[in-house]
Design a protein that fits this description.
Number of helices of chain B: 13
Shape of chain B: globular
CATH architecture of the largest domain in chain B: Orthogonal Bundle
Mean pLDDT of chain A: 85
Helix content of chain A: 40-55%
Largest sheet of chain A: 9 strands, antiparallel
Oligomer: heterodimer
Strand content of chain A: 5-15%
Structural class of chain B: mainly alpha
Low-confidence stretches of chain A: none
Mean pLDDT of chain B: 81
Low-confidence stretches of chain B: 1-28, 302-312
Chain lengths: 503, 312
C-alpha cells in the first residue's frame, strides 16, 4: 500500500538523520527526532486523527523552517554572536593559544601543500603536510592532525603532496586569494599548533600566549602582558580596556537593541534607513498604482482596438526573471557605458549620489510593478457596475467628477488588500535594493549603512557583508523589522477587518 | 517561500475578469475629435508599451551582440550573432539552469501538495484548533522566511556539520527550507477555492463508502486543477527568482541557481563590461521558461480563477 511505503521511506530517513546525532552524542536532538517519528506513525496509522493526517507535513516544515528561525533570531539578538565571538570560552582559549604560536628552536618543519575541503574559494582550509625526516604524511584541519596513507596521495620526489583523495589542492593564485584565511588558520596539536610559513612550509611551534585558569586570564610569556576574562562581554581585556580579537559568545541582554538608540552613528543611520524604508514602500505603491490606473483607464476605453496585444506586452516585465532584470537595469544606469546616459547624452553617476540613486531605484520598481497593478485595476474597473457612472452621467456629472466621486473610491475599497500586501512586500524588497544600488552610496565614515539601504539590506550587510559578521546586532535589526511588520499588519487588518471573515 | 514573486503575492491575483468592458469613465466623449475619443488611449498605451519593452529589447539585443560588451550594447544591435549563447552554454550556466529547474519544479510541486492537503483539512473538517490554526497561518505569512536570514544561516551551519547533504551549499537543503514557507503562502487561497466546491459531492461519495483519502485524491483534487495550476506556476516562478536565501546558502559554483550564478557574472566591477553579453544571453535563456509559463498562467488567472463556477 502507498501509505506503508511512504511510512517506510520516512522511517529510513529518520534512521539516516539519527546516525550523525548518535555519532555526536546529541541526545536531545535524537529524542526530538524519535518523538517526531513516533508522532508521524501514530497520526498515519490511527484511524481517528484525520485532519492531522493532512496538516502534519506542512506543519512540521512550518515549525522547523519558519517558526524556529524566528525564535532563534530573537535569541541571537540578545547575544554578542559575531566574528570573534562564535564559540564557547574553551574554544576561544584554544584559538588564542594556537594563533599565538611562534617557532621555537626545536620546531618540526613540514613540507606544506595548501588544500580545501570543497570549493577552492570558500571551502575549509586543509594543510597537507609531509614530515621530511620520517616521510609521514598528514592532513591538518582546524580539528587536528590525521594521518594520510600513501595510497591516497600523489607527491613529488621532494615529498610535496600534489593530490590527496577528498581534498582540493589549491594552485598559487587560489592560495594567495585565501591569504587572510591562511594567516588565521592553524592546526592544533599536543605541543601547540602547526602554522604556515609562506605557501610551501609549515612549522609546529609553541603558543606565546597561555591561558591560566587560576587567574582566569591570558598571559603573554614574552611581553608579560595580561588579559583578564570579562565574562559579561565575552572577551579577554587588559588593564587599558583593550580586548583580544578572539572572544566567546555570551548573553548581552538588550545591548544590541540599545546600541541603536545610544550609539550616535548607528542611531542616525538607523533612523535614516527606517524613514527611507517607509518612503520607498509607500512611494512604490503610489506610483505603481497611479501609472497602472492611468494605463488601465486609457485601455479600458471601449473604442480602443487591440487591447489584448497591449495587455500581454505591457505585462511582459512581470514575467521576466526579476533578479536578471534588476541587474540589467543596474548596468543600464552604468555611468560610462550605460544605455540611459548614452540615450540622454549625459554622464550622470547614478549610484554616486543618494537622490539619483533613489530615482533610479524607484524607476526600476515602477517598471517591474506597475503592469501588475494595471492588470488588477483593469479587472476591478470591469467589475464596477456601469449603472453607477451612467446614473451620474444622467444627473449631469462631468466624467472626471464621476470618476473622482464614484469610480475611484470603489476602486480603493476593492484594491485595499492588494495595496497593503504590496506595501508589505516592498517594505522588505531586498532584491530591488541589493541588486540595483547595492544600498549605496556609502559615506566614507560609515561604510555599513548606505544611502538607499532598507532594513533588510542593512541586516544582510551586517551579517554577511565584508566588514566582519555581527550576527547578534543583525538579528536585533531583524527583530525591529518583525515589530514594524507586526504593527503595520495589525493596523492594516483592523482597518480592513479581514480577520472577521475567518470561518 | 514566502512572497518571492515580483509583487504582492498570489492571493490577490484573481481580480481580472474577461467580462464585457463596461464604460466606467468616459474621459473621451463620443463627440469630439479622434484624439479625445480614442487617440489619447493609444498614446498612453504606446508610451506604456515602450516603457515596458525597452529594457527587454535591450537585453535581447545585448545577448545577440557578437562583441558582447556593455559599452557596445544598444537597443538595436549593429551585428547579430549567437556567440554569447555558445559561450554561456559551455560554461557553468547549464548546471545553474538545471539547479534552478530542479528547485523550481520540486518546490512548486511539493508546496502545492502540502498546501492543498492543509486546505482540504481546513475546508472539510471541523476540529479543535481549526480557527486558531487558520489565523496563525494568516499571521505567519506576514513574516516572510528571509527576514530570519541570519538565524537560517546559523541554523544551517549546524545542520551542515551533522547532515552535509541537506546543509549549506546543497540545493536539497534550500529546497527543504523553501517548503517551510509552503503552508503560509497558498493555504488561504486554496481553502477559499475548496470552499466553493459543494460539500454534497463528498457527502454522496461518503455514502457510497469512499474514504477521506479517496475523496481528496479522487474527487476534490481533480476539481481544483485551475488553482493547483496557478499556485504551482507561481511557486515555480517564485523559487526560480528567489535570490536572498539562495545567495547566502549556495556559494560553490556547481550548486548555484541561475539567479545567483548570473549575479556572480557581473559581481566583478572590472570584468563586467566584457561579460555583459554573456550575462544577457543567460538572462534571456532563463526568461524562456518563466515567460512561457506566465503566458500559460495568464490564461488560468483570467479564466479559471475568476469564473467562479467549477465544472467537473
Amino acid at each position: 500500500m502507498l501509505k506503508i511505503g511512504a511510512l517506510a521511506v520516512f522511517a529510513a530517513l529518520a534512521v539516516w538523520g539519527a546516525l550523525p546525532l548518535i555519532r555526536t552524542q546529541d541526545w536531545i536532538g535524537l529524542a526530538i527526532l524519535v518523538a517526531v517519528t513516533v508522532l508521524a506513525f501514530y497520526v498515519y496509522l490511527s484511524p481517528r486523527t484525520i485532519p492531522l493526517k493532512y496538516l502534519l507535513p506542512g506543519t512540521l516544515f512550518l515549525i522547523v523552517f519558519q517558526i524556529l528561525p524566528v525564535i532563534y533570531t530573537v535569541n541571537t539578538a540578545f547575544t554578542n554572536f559575531s566574528d570573534g565571538h562564535r564559540g564557547s570560552k574553551e574554544e576561544a582559549v584554544t584559538a588564542i593559544e594556537s594563533a599565538s604560536v611562534q617557532q621555537v628552536p626545536d620546531s618540526t618543519i613540514y613540507t606544506l601543500t595548501i588544500a580545501t575541503q570543497g570549493d577552492p574559494a570558500t571551502g575549509d582550509i586543509v594543510f597537507l603536510l609531509t614530515d621530511p625526516s620520517s616521510n609521514e604524511m598528514y592532513a591538518g584541519t582546524a580539528d587536528g592532525l590525521r594521518g594520510l596513507s600513501a595510497d591516497d596521495v600523489d607527491r613529488t620526489a621532494t615529498g610535496k603532496i600534489t593530490a590527496a583523495g577528498g581534498y582540493t589542492v589549491l594552485n598559487i593564485q587560489q592560495a594567495s586569494a585565501r591569504q587572510d584565511d591562511l594567516n588565521a588558520f592553524s592546526v592544533p596539536t599536543s605541543q601547540g599548533a602547526i602554522k604556515a610559513q609562506g605557501l610551501s612550509q609549515a612549522f609546529e611551534g609553541a603558543p606565546q600566549q597561555n591561558y591560566d585558569a587560576n587567574c582566569d586570564c591570558v598571559t603573554d610569556t614574552v611581553t608579560g602582558a595580561v588579559w583578564t576574562a570579562d565574562d559579561k562581554n565575552g572577551a579577554f581585556v587588559n588593564d587599558r580596556g583593550e580586548a583580544l580579537a578572539q572572544g566567546w559568545k555570551v548573553n548581552v541582554g538588550f545591548t544590541n537593541f540599545t546600541r541603536v538608540l545610544t550609539n550616535d552613528t548607528i542611531r542616525d543611520s538607523f533612523a535614516r534607513i527606517v524613514i527611507w524604508n517607509f518612503a520607498f514602500a509607500i512611494i512604490v505603491v503610489a506610483i505603481n498604482f497611479a501609472l497602472g490606473l492611468l494605463v488601465a483607464l486609457a485601455l479600458n476605453n471601449p473604442l480602443v482596438k487591440g487591447k489584448k496585444i497591449y495587455r500581454s506586452l505591457i505585462i511582459l516585465p512581470y514575467a521576466m526573471p526579476a533578479v536578471a532584470m534588476y541587474l540589467v537595469w543596474r548596468e543600464m544606469f552604468n555611468t560610462d557605458f550605460g544605455l540611459i546616459n548614452r540615450l540622454l547624452g549625459t554622464h550622470i553617476n547614478w549610484f554616486g549620489g543618494t537622490a539619483t540613486s533613489m530615482v533610479a531605484i524607484l524607476l526600476v520598481q515602477l517598471w517591474l510593478g506597475y503592469n501588475y497593478m494595471f492588470l488588477v485595476i483593469t479587472g476591478a474597473l470591469q467589475s464596477i457596475p456601469a449603472d453607477l457612472t451612467e446614473a451620474a452621467g444622467v444627473d449631469g456629472a462631468k466624467p472626471f467628477y464621476a470618476f473622482r466621486t464614484i469610480t475611484f473610491p470603489l476602486l480603493l475599497v476593492s484594491l485595499a488588500p492588494l495595496l497593503i500586501s504590496s506595501f508589505a512586500f516592498n517594505f522588505n524588497n531586498f532584491a530591488a535594493i541589493f541588486l540595483v544600488s547595492r544600498g549605496g552610496p556609502f559615506s566614507p565614515d560609515n561604510p555599513s549603512a548606505g544611502g538607499t539601504d532598507l532594513l533588510i539590506t542593512y541586516t544582510y550587510r551586517l551579517a554577511f557583508g565584508g566588514g566582519g559578521a555581527d550576527y547578534g546586532f543583525a538579528a536585533a535589526i531583524s527583530v525591529f523589522i518583525f515589530l514594524i511588520v507586526a504593527v503595520v499588519s495589525i493596523v492594516g487588518f483592523t482597518r480592513t477587518r479581514a480577520l472577521e471573515e475567518v470561518n | 517561500m514566502a512572497s518571492i514573486g515580483n509583487q504582492a503575492g498570489p492571493q490577490m491575483i484573481g481580480a481580472v475578469g474577461e467580462g464585457p468592458p463596461t464604460e466606467v469613465v468616459r474621459l473621451g466623449t463620443a463627440k469630439g475629435n479622434w484624439f479625445t475619443r480614442v487617440g489619447w488611449s493609444h498614446l498612453v498605451g504606446i508610451l506604456a508599451l515602450a516603457f515596458s519593452l525597452f529594457p527587454i529589447v535591450f537585453v535581447v539585443s545585448a545577448a545577440l551582440n557578437p562583441v558582447g560588451t556593455l559599452s557596445s550594447s544598444s537597443l538595436i544591435p549593429s551585428n547579430v550573432g549567437f556567440d554569447n549563447f555558445g559561450s554561456i552554454l559551455s560554461g557553468s550556466f547549464p548546471r545553474w539552469f538545471l539547479n534552478s529547474l530542479i528547485i523550481g519544479v520540486l518546490s512548486a510541486a511539493l508546496s502545492m501538495f502540502i498546501s492543498a492537503c492543509a486546505a482540504y483539512a481546513f475546508s472539510r473538517f471541523r476540529f479543535v484548533g481549526r480557527r486558531p490554526g487558520l489565523l496563525g497561518i494568516l499571521l505567519i505569512q506576514l513574516f516572510p522566511q528571509f527576514l530570519a536570514i541570519v538565524a537560517l544561516y546559523l541554523i544551517f551551519t549546524e545542520v551542515t556539520q551533522l547532515w552535509p547533504a541537506i546543509g549549506l551549499n546543497s540545493i536539497w537543503g534550500l529546497l527543504l527550507l523553501y517548503l517551510g514557507g509552503a503552508l503560509g503562502v497558498n493555504t488561504w487561497l486554496m481553502k477559499g477555492f475548496f470552499d466553493t466546491i459543494p460539500r454534497d459531492l463528498d457527502e454522496s461519495a461518503k455514502v457510497d463508502g469512499a474514504t477521506h483519502a479517496q475523496i481528496f485524491f479522487g474527487i476534490i483534487l481533480p476539481l481544483v486543477r485551475p488553482i493547483l495550476a496557478v499556485t504551482g506556476l507561481l511557486g515555480f516562478i517564485g523559487a526560480v527568482n528567489e535570490f536572498l536565501i539562495a545567495s547566502v546558502f549556495l556559494t560553490d559554483d556547481s550548486v548555484k541557481t541561475a539567479a545567483v550564478g548570473l549575479y556572480g557574472l557581473l559581481a566583478d566591477e572590472q570584468a563586467k563590461n566584457a561579460r555583459f553579453g554573456l550575462f544577457a544571453a543567460g538572462a534571456v535563456i532563463l526568461a524562456i521558461p518563466t515567460v512561457a509559463l506566465f503566458q500559460f498562467l495568464q490564461r488560468y488567472i483570467v479564466g479559471g480563477l475568476t469564473a467562479g463556477a467549477v465544472k467537473g
